[in-house]
Design brief:
Layout (H helix, E strand, L loop, with lengths): L1 H5 L17 H11 L1 H4 L4 H4 L12 H17 L9 H12 L6 E2 H8 L7 H13 L4 E4 L18 E4 L1 H6 L7 E4 L6 E5 L6 H5 L1 E4 L4 E4 L4 H12 L15 E3 L12 E4 L1 E6 L2 E6 L6 H13 L5 E6 L7 E5 L5 H11 L3 E4 L4 E4 L2 E4 L2 H42 L12 H12 L12 H8 L3 H5 L3 H23 L1 H16 L8 E2 L7 H4 L4 E6 L4 E3 L8 E6 L4 E6 L3 E6 L4 E2 L4 E7 L7 E7 L6 E6 L10 E2 L8 E8 L3 E9 L9 E5 L5 E2 L6 E4 L3 E12 L4 E6 L4 E3 L5 E6 L5 E5 L3 E5 L11 E6 L5 E8 L4 E8 L7 E2 L7 E7 L5 E6 L9 E4 H4 L2 E2 L6 E2 L5 E7 L29 H8 L20 H4 L4 H5 L4 H22 L26 H9 L35 E3 L8
Parallel strand pairs: 8-17, 26-31, 41-46
Antiparallel strand pairs: 1-3, 2-3, 4-5, 6-7, 8-9, 9-14, 10-11, 11-13, 12-13, 15-16, 18-19, 18-20, 19-23, 21-22, 21-24, 22-27, 25-26, 25-28, 26-32, 29-30, 29-33, 33-49, 34-35, 34-36, 37-38, 37-39, 38-42, 40-41, 40-43, 41-47, 44-45, 44-48
């Protein structure tokens, strides 16, 4: 048989001089011999016999090798050729032995398998149930358990099984099977089964051996066959897992199933309504019971908030979750993925047995070897078939010669068999040249044993037809052998067409977005702080301290001291930072919109500095300074603004000689938002007596750019996917689905979209949608125009009964519809319909207007060309710190000039509100004389406000990225409409090109009314502290 295999070109072992052991026992026996020289002397004392007693310590090495080899080769790791472990192979062989087409009791199959498998019946039954649950090789009857719920199968005496038709055709062939003796020598069992299909990849496999493990994920039946065909035809292919439980999988790190890869699998969760979620598919390796338990456990720990969870699973998964009234369903979905078994990560590790050794092979290589092995098996079957046909032709030809030439008469008078055989052989001599091989003694014996009744009824015509048919079969078989690749491809196509129905992919492949647990965790704890002693935490021992806010037990907190040092750390039951905690709050990593407005004294008697910054990402538990780091610095004022608000402060200086202007306004909106390491701008060199909150701030950040990533079906602000536009306030998006539905929703980045989503765009209330559709009930084409209704509920814009098929849609004004015809009207020229004039704008529920009664070939909207949209500006302003300035914040150049005339340098020339020399008008500053020599304190304050207002005007001409600066502006940030503080880039560039000069201060030094410019209105969320509230800088803490 080995010689016959060589004729097909099967791969031989790479090292022919040292043949690989064929069994685990051979491998174990060979191992001691290989290292005998190294063991000599070293282990003599442990292994020598002492009075017929061998020490156990000396046996450990050999015993462990035997055990490890046995577990790897005979128990845990599948073989690459047939994809089966030994117990699975023996089960299938035993089922084939007792197979008669009827069901057999599982207990009977287990008993039959025990003739080949030297282990307990329980392990055999468990392996048989797992094979049956894969629904490929075994036809099951009875209660075989449920892979969805985890229910176990009934006892072996109750359930029955038989081989499936697929297994009977693909798995077995005695003529191509290599056999060996069973463990007790009484039976023969296959070394490997001649499976002509990548069974290992279709079913998957996992096992733990000694020193290694194997985990191969299941793949799709149809995709495997298509990949085999692609390999045989020399085309590229890709394989990704497909799980029987469905769900969604992210295979971006699959790594071809090799070590180091990972596959994330998620349950499919849909929203029934705002307060009800439904899990309809679960991740592989989980059950509905385990998912339910994990949900309850997460709820008990406070990770999620749900009211009730019900498991209604039967044939299909159905877990109903009732969300708490105060929780968002979208946030709950993310929390389920983050804290429960609704998302699991699987680490593949494709290890297989090849040439009696374990090898780590990728799934692509496993499939290639399976395809080549299948091709070899098919070629082996064709060779056997060709040999059988040649034998049949030889036998039929001999029989025809023997009967038609009456050679049987030569037997008459022969006294012995040998004499009769010799007479017949001599009579065949003239005809041997017609034959294809030599006539053997067995051929002659078969001729002499023909019955006379057969000879008397011999039909020459029928015999000729049979020989002719055999010759055609030989020719066809030889053709298949000569074109073995095409034959193998046809074989795969045949089993795909025959058994592929209902085996479509169940797991949806999708890229997952990263869910940050801190963003979706519910507030299950309360944060407390003891400012004087420096302790903070969420434990019971802190409940007598000052309450700060609600938080999660996995949140990070940021803690500031009075001298400007701060640290970010994980929240705990109780922790110590430093006595005199100034501020503590929950920290959100990579948050670009939370802005810190700070006024601090640099050193004990140093100048007063002002700054605005964002703290996005720093090292946890590392100490930083929000000041310059000068010893004995002190924070005089600080506010934390979640949406970049900029307030106005009234600052009272300490009285001193010649200082008559003791009250000034500080508007933070005139400062640029910079990195956390920026030193800030100089506010004053004089000491501050007290600070009053004069005016609550509005946001100085622009709208938020939002993108839609079609791969993960999520909104994001990171630039992934299609840009929907800049959103703020009550802006909305419209979502279209493949079920001819739409709904209007907000632009919350955490929301989930239906699986049927086909398009997401910005919602414009006055936008008109023109739709062409085909009405199957009336068999006509219609067109309708409508505006979308503001509703967060699904709205059908076509027939709810499914009788309408969407053909084309446009949202452009002035579009035309081109109609071409076919059939009896094919010669009719194409028509162009003016969409805006053809039908009026009505409700989306309207039927519309019929387009034509002729037979339509195509419908196509011809849309007018639009000018290219300008790309969104990426100018985030200058920055001298480690963090980038948030998008849409105050530009660095304009903000710095408004506060100090420093430009983008951020502290190199900070002279705002001090007595330095220079062009005060240009820098928006006031000298010492203005502070001390004015008519009154109010006039000096007005002078400062006036010149501070003129500086942004000049900055706007120089820096178009600076929002909220305009020449001669006198309105406050609250008086300016949203977006009015964003000059066009081209206007600023034109002003700069034309040599526009900065607006000078009034020569008489008299003030104009007004204070600041800058800011875009957003929802205000501020800490406590009322307008005009007097704040003592010694006890300053707005939080």
């Amino acid at each position: 048989m080995a010689e016959e295999k060589d004729t097909i070109g099967r791969d031989e072992p790479l090292n022919e001089e040292a043949p690989t052991p064929q069994t685990a026992g051979d491998a174990a026996d060979a191992a001691p011999a290989a290292d005998a020289p190294a063991r000599a002397g070293k282990f003599d004392r442990l292994t020598q016999d002492e009075g017929g007693v061998r020490k156990l310590t000396g046996m450990y090495k050999n015993w462990f090798l035997d055990y490890a080899s046995y577990v790897i080769l005979e128990r845990a790791v599948p073989h690459v050729e047939d994809g089966l472990k030994p117990v699975q192979r023996r089960i299938l062989h035993a089922m084939k032995v007792v197979d008669d087409g009827r069901y057999n009791k599982v207990a009977n199959i287990v008993g039959q398998t025990m003739q080949y498998h030297p282990h307990g019946d329980a392990s055999i039954k468990d392996a048989l149930v797992q094979l049956g649950q894969k629904d490929l090789l075994i036809d099951c009857q009875g209660n075989w358990g449920n892979i969805l719920t985890g229910d176990e199968a009934a006892a072996g005496r109750y359930i029955e099984a038989r081989l499936s038709k697929f297994a009977s055709e693909v798995v077995f062939n005695k003529k191509t099977t290599e056999w060996m003796l069973s463990y007790d020598g009484r039976k023969e069992e296959p070394v490997t089964l001649p499976i002509k299909f990548p069974l290992l990849l279709a079913q998957g496999s996992d096992g733990i051996a000694v020193g290694l493990a194997s985990k191969i994920l299941p793949h799709n039946f149809l995709e495997l066959i298509n990949a085999c065909i692609a390999h045989l035809e020399g085309r590229e292919f890709q394989l990704y897992p497909d799980f029987p439980t469905g769900g969604m999988a992210d295979v971006s790190r699959y790594n071809d199933g090799l070590r180091g890869g990972a596959v994330k699998v998620r349950a499919k969760i849909s929203k029934i309504d705002k307060r009800t979620l439904a899990i309809t598919e679960i991740p592989y390796t989980t059950t509905t019971e385990s998912i339910k338990d994990s949900i309850i456990k997460a709820n008990d720990k406070g990770k999620i908030k749900i009211r009730k969870v019900d498991d209604n699973t039967a044939d299909k998964v159905e877990i109903i979750i009732q969300v708490s009234p105060d929780e968002s369903s979208d946030k709950t979905i993310d929390a389920l993925y983050a804290f429960t078994d609704c998302e699991v990560s699987i680490a593949p590790n494709a290890c297989v047995i090849w040439e009696e050794k374990p090898h780590f092979l990728g799934v692509s290589e496993i499939l290639r070897r399976s395809a080549e092995h299948t091709k070899w098996l098919l070629g082996r079957e064709l060779e056997i078939r060709l040999g059988e046909l040649n034998e049949a032709w030889h036998a039929a030809s001999l029989e025809r010669i023997f009967i038609e030439n009456k050679l049987y008469q030569l037997i008459e008078g022969c006294k012995s068999r040998e004499e009769a055989y010799a007479a017949v052989d001599k009579g065949l001599e003239p005809f041997k040249k017609r034959l294809r091989r030599e006539v053997t003694l067995s051929d002659v014996q078969r001729l002499t044993e023909l019955k006379f009744i057969r000879i008397s009824r011999y039909d020459s015509d029928k015999a000729d037809n049979e020989i002719r048919q055999i010759e055609e079969d030989i020719k066809a078989t030889q053709y298949d052998l000569d074109h073995l690749t095409e034959y193998a491809v046809a074989y795969y196509e045949r089993i795909r067409d025959k058994y592929g129905k209902g085996k479509e992919r169940r797991t949806e492949l999708r890229e997952f977005d990263n869910i940050e647990a801190t963003k979706v965790a519910v507030t299950n704890a309360k944060l407390y702080v003891d400012r004087a002693e420096g302790f903070f935490g969420i434990g019971k021992s802190m409940k007598d301290a000052e309450f700060v806010c609600d938080c999660s037990d996995i949140d990070d907190v940021i803690v500031f001291t009075k001298d400007g040092r701060y640290v970010i750390t994980k929240v705990s039951d109780k922790a110590f930072f430093e006595k005199g905690i100034y501020y503590i709050g929950v920290f959100k990593r990579n948050d670009e919109r939370t802005i810190y407005n700070v006024l601090y004294r640099d050193g004990k008697n140093g100048p007063i500095m002002m700054k605005r910054c964002a703290i996005k990402a720093i090292t946890r538990d590392k100490e930083y300074d929000i000041t310059k780091g000068t010893p004995k610095s002190e924070i005089l004022y600080m506010s934390v603004n979640p949406n970049g608000e900029a307030e106005v402060l009234k600052v009272y200086f300490k009285p001193r000689p010649r200082l008559k202007k003791v009250i000034v306004d500080l508007d933070f909106s005139t400062l640029a938002i910079k990195g956390r390491q920026s030193q800030g701008n100089l506010f004053s060199r004089y000491g501050i007596h007290k600070i009053v909150l004069k005016e609550r701030g509005t946001s100085t950040l622009g709208g938020q750019n939002v993108w839609f990533d079609e791969d993960v079906r999520r909104l994001n602000a990171d630039g992934r996917g299609k840009l929907l536009g800049e959103f703020k306030g009550d802006d909305r998006i419209i979502v279209w689905t493949s079920k001819n539905q739409y709904y209007i929703t907000g632009y919350d980045l955490g929301q989930h979209f239906p699986d049927e989503t086909v398009r997401v765009s910005r919602y414009e209330p006055d936008r008109v949608y023109s739709v062409c559709y085909y009405d199957r009930s009336q068999q006509f084409y219609y067109m309708k125009r409508f505006t979308a209704e503001m509703s967060d509920k699904m709205q059908f814009f076509l027939d709810e009964d499914g009788q309408a098929d969407l053909v084309a849609v446009t949202e452009r004004t002035g579009a035309k519809l081109e109609i071409t015809y076919k059939g009896a009207h094919a010669s009719r020229p194409a028509d162009e319909v003016d969409v805006d004039e053809f039908v009026g704008v009505k409700s989306h529920r309207a039927k519309g207007k019929r387009l034509t009664t002729y037979e339509v070939a195509t419908l196509r909207f011809i849309e007018p060309e639009l000018p290219p949209e300008p790309e969104p500006s990426d100018d985030d302003g200058g920055d001298d710190g480690s963090d980038d300035a948030p998008s849409g914040g105050s530009g660095a150049s304009g903000g710095e000039k408004a506060g100090s005339g420093n430009g983008a340098s951020g502290g190199a020339d900070n002279r705002a509100f001090d007595g330095s020399n220079g062009d005060a008008a240009d820098r928006g500053t006031i000298d010492a004389a203005a502070l001390s020599g004015g008519d009154s304190a109010s006039s000096a304050a007005s002078a400062i406000s006036d010149r501070s207002a003129s500086a942004p005007a000049s900055a706007a001409a120089e820096n178009p990225a600076t929002p909220g600066v305009a020449a001669g502006t006198a309105a406050s940030a609250q008086d300016r409409p949203a977006g009015a503080d964003k000059p066009a880039a081209k206007d600023a560039a034109a002003a700069k090109a034309s040599g526009a000069k900065k607006t000078p201060a009034r020569p008489d030094g008299l003030p104009r009314t007004g204070t600041t410019a800058g800011g875009v209105e957003f929802e205000i969320e501020r800490a406590r502290g009322d307008v005009d509230e007097v704040i003592d800088p010694e006890q300053l803490n707005l939080f």
